Structures are given as structure tokens and as C-alpha cells.
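Q: Convert this sequence to C-alpha cells.
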Amino acid sequence: MLIAGNWKMNTDLSKARTLAAGVRKAAESAGEVEVLVCPPFISLDAVCQVMRGSAVQVGGQTLYPEDSGAFTGEVSAPMLRSVGCSHVIVGHSERRQLFGETDEDVNTRLLQARLHDLVPILCVGETLQQRKAGNQRTVVEEQLTAALANVDIAEADDLVVAYEPVWAIGTGETASPEQAQAMHAFIRSRLTDRLGQSVGAGVAILYGGSMKPHNADELLSQDDVDGGLIGGASLKASDFGAIINVATGYTA
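A:
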């Protein structure tokens, strides 16, 4: 079970340190639950320092598919590694919708993450229009296939997938537990087809559609929901901690 917080473009440096300290405290009772936070780039070093000596991992929110160069405003995998990141979010719906990242762009970023031993959190998911048209599985399968092209995933821990029903992010809507489980099971089947049973069955598939303390239990209780990629609720240590506490009930 993995509970990951995506802070997006929130918190200044001081607030990031305070939030990180609160998450570290909340994670002390996490047990077998893995905890990860993905702060803004300017706060990565500070948050890594706060988390040092704890079990809380730190990740980036995206990366550029080159090690270095004349790419003003971008951040590379070696930079993320240098401050202590273990993970990086790849292909978040906001990156796709607001910044025009294509499936091919996501693939190059995922390849770069693996090249530098960062665990990519690959985000996939459909829009409301695509779901209403009944195309959600086609969309998600195409995203998975394109993102994983030529990517070597030898162990289940080399990859995390986050299912984002785009229509449920920041809208107050949430996929029902049954909808979440159905898509997670579909993603699991596609992963096992591509990566083999032993690897595909072990890849953590997170739910990334507005998980909050009040709905975490019904979502995390589903067989193929292995955690959450948390947005708004990750910005309050108490809410994030409450979700972590729910997750502890589903770890062996």
C-alpha cells in the first residue's frame, strides 16, 4: 500500500517545511504503508532534509527527458536524484491537458526516469467525455501501451501506476468504489499481459481521483486499489495522516 501526496503548485518554502514535518509525524504510525510526498521543485531539498531519517520518501512532480542542457525552466532526473528523490510523477493529467504532453512525451520521460533509477508514477485516465462515450478502457490502454513502449520493467517495484479519472479531479466528484475497482482490475490485466504475471500482479496501482479521509476506506478496500495519489487532501497533514491510518488497515 502506497499513499502519495502531490502538492502541485502549493506551499512556499516555509509552509513546505511545516507540512513536511506534519507528514513525518503522521507517518510514524504508518506501519507497512509506504508514504511519499511530491512537493514543488523549489522545496524538494528542504523537504528531503525534513524527511531524512524517516521512512517518508520524496518525489518530483515531473521531469525533462534530458540529463542537462539549454532547457530553461526544466528539471532533470539527475537533479531529482541529487536532492534525494526516489520517485517522479509522469504524465499527470494536468501535464497532459494544460501543457500539451503527449503519450510519446510521457514515454520519453518514463524512459529517462528508469535510466536514472527513479520510480515513475505513471498517470493514466479518461475525461468525462471519453467515459460518457464508453471509451475509458480504450483510452487507458492506449496510454499504458504508449507510455511503456521499450521500457524495461524487471521488478514490480520499478513502476507505479496511478489511475486518474480526470472528471473526478478537483470537481468534487469521485469514481464509485465499483468504478475504481473495475478500471484498476483492467489496468492490472494489461500490466500482467505486458510485464508477466509475477511483475504485473505486484505493481502498485493507485487511485488518483480526489481521495479524501471520508471516502478513503471504501476506495482502499477494493482488491486492486493499492493506495492513493492524493492532491488536495495532501496539503493538510491531518487529512493526509487520516488517509494513511485508513491504509494501515489494509496491509498484512
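The chain has one domain: 2-248.
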